[in-house]
Structures are given as C-alpha cells and as structure tokens.
Amino acid sequence: QLSSYYYAKTCPKALYIIKTAVLGAVAKESRMGASLLRLHFHDCFVNGCDASVLLDDDDTSNFTGEKSAAPNANSLRGFEVIDSIKSKLETACPGVVSCADILAVAARDSVATLGGPTWTVELGRRDSTTASFSNANTDLASPLMNLDELISVFSKKGFTEKEMVALSGSHTTGKARCLLFRNRIYNETNIDSEFAKSIQSNCPSSGGGDNLSPLDDGSPVIFDNSYFKNLVNNKGLLHSDQALFNGGSMDSQVATYSENPITFYVDFANAMVKMGNLSVLTGTDGEIRTNCRKVN
Ligand code: HEM
Ligand SMILES: [Ca+2]
User: Which residues participate in Ca(2+) 1 binding (predicted)?
Assistant: First the structure.
C-alpha cells in the first residue's frame, strides 16, 4: 500500500528537508540519532506506525498519551527535532506529510548518518487520532526480560527471533539510565567483571539512577556491529541485551553478526522496513496532523 514515491508530486522536497534536519540535529548532538531511531520503534510497536507516540495527553479527546507510559517516561527524546521538521514541512507543503512518515524517514536518516546501512522508506502512512497509554505499557519490551519473553514480545508483532536479534542491534548507539541496569552490573554473573566495574563508577549501588552509560561502550556513536561483539564478550549493558547471548538459541546468530557486519546491516535494514509497515493507516483512515503533538 505504501510507496516510496508517495510525496514525489505533492512534496518533492520532503525527503531532503527531513534529511537535512536530521543531519543538523545529529551534528549538534550525536545521541539524537539514537533517540530518533528509538522514537520510530516505540511508535510502531504501539498501535502501529501512526505517530501515536508523539501525541501529548489530550483533555478534549480524553486520552492519556504514550509519553508517560513506563517505557517512555523520562526516556524518549527527540520530540523537538520532529516538531521542527514538521514545521518546515508545513511551510513547504501544508497538510501533506504525516508525522508517522517523518518518524520513519528520520530513523533511516539517523542510522545512515551514524555510519550504518540505509534503505528505501515506504511512504504514505497517516497519523492516528488517538494514542494508547496502556498498549505502550504492554507492547514494548522491558530491559529486565529474558530471551523467551523478548521473543514473545516481537513475535506478537510478527517478527522472527532472528529479526528480533537484528533489530536489537540498534543498541549499538545511544545511552541508558543506571536504574535500568544497576542490578545487572552489581548482581549478575554473566557479565565481564572489568566491564561491570567500569560501569559501576558512574552508576552507584544507590542513587544516581538517571546517570547515563552508552549501550555500546565500544563505539557509542557509530552504527556498527560492535554491540554484538560486546555480547559475545559478556559486555551487554542491559539484562535484555545479554539475554540474546547467554547459552540460548540465539547465541549463534549473535556470533554471526559479531563477525559479519554486512549480514547484520542487510538483516537490520530489511527488519526496519518490515517494522515500518506495522499496522499503518492509509487511504482515508486517520489524518495528516498539522502539529505532531495534537490531533487536528
Ligand atoms: C529487544 C528489546 C528491547 C529492549 C528491552 C529495549 C530497551 C531499551 C532501554 C531500557 C533503553 C534505555 C532507556 C533509558 O535508559 O531510558 C533503550 C534505549 C534505546 N533503544 Fe532499545 N530496547 C529494545 C529494542 C530496541 C529496538 C528494536 C530499537 C530500534 C529499532 C531500539 C533502539 C534503542 C535506542 C537507539 C536506544 C538509545 C536511545 C537514546 O539514547 O536516546 N531498542 N532500549
Ligand atoms: Ca504507534
């Protein structure tokens, strides 16, 4: 249903406008590439890729937005970058480019800007007129999950175990808060002890819960396969990261990606296209929001 030429006639500069803005935002702060990639993921896994994640709480339509759900609160970032892209697009071609498409293109451009693979983004998603606080709490994975739980969360969205592992390679960039990996670095045994010690210096056993550590110590602002190299060395930051390589069924897949970046890139790009197609609104469903934070 979606098409890569969707805006060719109605907003020919759309892709250029988004790419330029993403490049600028990542140049200003490299972590923003990670944050924009994650926004698209947290959008797509909750009611599909419909920009529901961008909506603020709405007193008129009477819904609580997804931003305050547990996986998102004090964690998601990049909303101002999306707002700024949207306002440029509204000037260039008012009412044409959806917020959901902006998220999909910004995720692709972020990965490419950080040195990762690129892919063709299918376009034509429309924006939701509602959000789901409760689905945001149930449909996203938690960093405390084990392999079987991670497989289950992704299989509910139609992904294979291998695709789940490839998508997790996103943790090759970006940061996480101490409170989410504290138990791992102090109490777990499947962790390299030097690595645990080095992370502990910025994540005390009590307090400092918001202190940040890179998800990939090896190359935090480059989109490469270093995340998988970490895992085979027991240097996964989150419990859920190390769960992918912990004597289970995905060990060999992780090892393959750790040795072969091209295989990872190909699988990652394909899985991102698939993720971008989750329950999209097309035709006359939904709307093209004027402001990504509010229904029209
Ligand atoms: C496999 C299950 C996953 C779990 C349990 C998980 C969990 C997390 C957690 C806990 C954080 C840190 C949040 C914080 O400290 O506030 C994080 C960050 C991040 N996640 Fe995931 N994630 C998963 C899969 C994914 C996928 C599929 C993607 C993208 C396609 C992704 C992209 C990111 C990125 C880029 C960051 C860094 C964001 C930033 O620095 O702003 N994650 N994730
Ligand atoms: Ca969504």
Answer: 43, 46, 48, 50, 52, 66
CA distance 104 to 42: 11
Q: Are 121 and 274 in contact (CB under 8 A)?
A: no
Alpha carbon of 224 to ligand 1 centroid (Å): 16
Q: Is 220 in the pocket of ligand 1 (CB under 6 A)?
A: no
The ligand 1 atom at the shortest distance from the C-alpha of residue 175 is 40
Segment 111-132 mean pLDDT: 98
pLDDT > 90? residue 16: yes
Is 219 assigned a ligand-binding role in the annotation? no
What are the structural domains of the chain?
14-141 (1.10.520.10), 147-271 (1.10.420.10)
Entry pTM: 0.98
List, as ranges, residues with CB under 5 A of the ion ligand 2.
43, 46-47, 50, 52
